[in-house]
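Run log // design_07
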């Protein structure tokens, strides 16, 4: 059993993928050599000093480059099952500006470099590897040729000699070397194709950033949707049960007048605890995602926040259309937390909240006439201002706080708001 496994590793593994790789090398040879006649033509016309004809090979190269690139991509997809990443392409258009834009892209000239420079060099290596395979097959089967060919067709009369045995051994050695040479060449060609036919490093980073931004937006939307679901479940489930409990306790306290003093005291205490639990649950639900924000938007939600504060707050909301739920929630929590900080720390007598949409930006400004000295740079990770800045940054927004000594304090938030 161990001998069989060893033979499979030694004999089977090198040749397992050699067929597809050799086919890939053979199929790439004509594609790599396609531009060579054009550049030979260019060299000939330059040598003949015929300037009127010289640009034609270059123009033809630019024309056939996209076709050769498509052929290379199909070659890798069909023989290796690999899809080469595509570079970014300019927008559609058929006017002369779009044509010039395509001709000046780095992606096109990287493709030209691949087909005109790297291609011929790879073709030389392709020929060398195919020659190794041909020599290996011929040498390993030399006794077959000796037996099959008539004597008059033989180049030399080797016969069944020791020299023929040496040639057979050399052919077998080349057969074991062939898959490794082919694999190394395929890795080299694949790397060159990825670098020159695929996106550049800058484009890869840009795509990665875009993918990360999209995935982060999806996570934020999912988290906001989960908060809304929890708020609905608490509001429609636990909160309603607590309200029903408080009502029943109130009815028991009012109707059961002949209860002992100790029992009445227990009912009064339970009624008070139920009402406090309802109030705490209301605050919890409002902190998760207030229902009024989802139903009526920022104007009503912020007006409700301002009405609960002990200082006068002027709220001005100018939104032609509602932003996305995630951005809307961020704006609400920023204003709510900022106003809470005003009441707790600013010693202010009034505050102003302005929310307006300017182009694709949602501008939120919270100002108060307090003592100032609110410093975001000196704030720790657990303070209100630092938390607001992180919440705003989660949607690629900007947060700034201007709070000189003696006031006023102005918090400005800009949130991206797609049309």
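design_07 sequence
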């Amino acid at each position: 059993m161990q001998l069989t496994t060893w033979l499979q590793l030694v004999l089977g593994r090198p040749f397992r993928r050699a067929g597809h790789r050799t086919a890939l090398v053979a199929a790439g040879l004509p594609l790599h050599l396609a531009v060579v006649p054009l550049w030979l033509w260019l060299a000939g016309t330059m040598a003949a000093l015929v300037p009127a004809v010289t640009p034609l090979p270059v123009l033809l190269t630019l024309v056939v480059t996209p076709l050769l690139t498509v052929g290379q991509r199909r070659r890798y997809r069909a023989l290796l099952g690999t899809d080469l990443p595509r570079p970014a392409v300019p927008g559609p258009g058929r006017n002369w500006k779009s044509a010039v834009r395509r001709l000046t892209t780095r992606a096109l000239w990287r493709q030209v470099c691949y087909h005109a420079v790297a291609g011929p060099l790879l073709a030389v290596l392709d020929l060398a590897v195919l020659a190794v395979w041909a020599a290996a097959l011929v040498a390993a089967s030399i006794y077959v040729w000796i037996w099959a060919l008539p004597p008059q067709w033989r180049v030399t009369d080797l016969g069944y000699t020791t020299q023929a045995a040496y040639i057979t051994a050399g052919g077998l050695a080349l057969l074991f070397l062939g898959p490794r040479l082919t694999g190394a060449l395929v890795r080299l060609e694949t790397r060159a194709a990825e670098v020159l036919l695929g996106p550049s490093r800058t484009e890869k980073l840009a795509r990665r950033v875009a993918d990360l931004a999209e995935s982060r937006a999806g996570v934020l939307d999912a988290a906001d949707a989960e908060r809304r679901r929890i708020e609905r479940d608490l509001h429609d489930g636990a909160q309603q049960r607590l309200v029903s409990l408080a009502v029943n306790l109130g009815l028991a306290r009012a109707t059961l007048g002949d209860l002992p003093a100790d029992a009445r005291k227990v009912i009064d205490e339970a009624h008070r605890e139920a009402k406090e639990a309802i109030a705490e649950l209301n605050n919890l639900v409002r902190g998760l995602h207030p229902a009024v924000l989802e139903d009526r938007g920022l104007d009503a939600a912020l007006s409700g926040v301002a009405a609960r504060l002990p200082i006068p707050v002027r709220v001005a909301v100018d939104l032609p259309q509602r932003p996305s739920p995630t951005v809307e929630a961020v704006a609400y929590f920023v204003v709510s937390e900022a106003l809470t900080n005003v009441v707790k720390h600013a010693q202010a007598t009034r505050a102003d909240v302005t929310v307006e949409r300017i182009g694709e930006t949602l501008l939120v400004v919270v100002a108060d006439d307090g003592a100032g000295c609110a410093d975001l740079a000196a704030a720790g990770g657990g303070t209100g201002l630092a938390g607001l800045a992180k919440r705003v940054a989660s949607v690629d927004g900007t947060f700034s706080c201007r709070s000189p000594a003696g006031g006023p304090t102005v918090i400005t938030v800009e949130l991206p708001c797609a049309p």
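Residues 289 and 296 are 13 Å apart (CA to CA).
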